[in-house]
From TrEMBL:
This is Uncharacterized protein. It comes from the Bacteria. It comes from Pedosphaera parvula (strain Ellin514).
Length: 77
């Protein structure tokens, strides 16, 4: 499980703000299990986010501080 800096669980479909609130995005994939990291050919767990500035972007779990990602809302089912 990957959490926002405030301790809230990150879920696929969450709307977020990135990079000091400069950009919007939506969480597309949560890559937290070792087999997921390997399947995505990554070096660390993290998130794939569809961003307003660069399409699908990977954010490593270790970089998710309050300046990097802010939870906005859950996806509406």
């Amino acid at each position: 499980m990957i959490l926002y800096p405030d301790g809230t669980e990150i879920r696929v479909g969450d709307a977020v703000l990135l990079h000091h609130r400069a950009y919007a995005g939506v969480v597309q994939h949560i890559i937290d299990l070792p087999e997921d990291v390997e399947r995505w050919n990554l070096e660390a767990p993290g998130l794939m986010i569809d961003t307003s500035y660069g399409g699908l972007v990977f954010l490593p779990k270790d970089s998710l501080d309050e300046d990097e990602i802010i939870f906005v809302s859950r996806a509406v089912a």
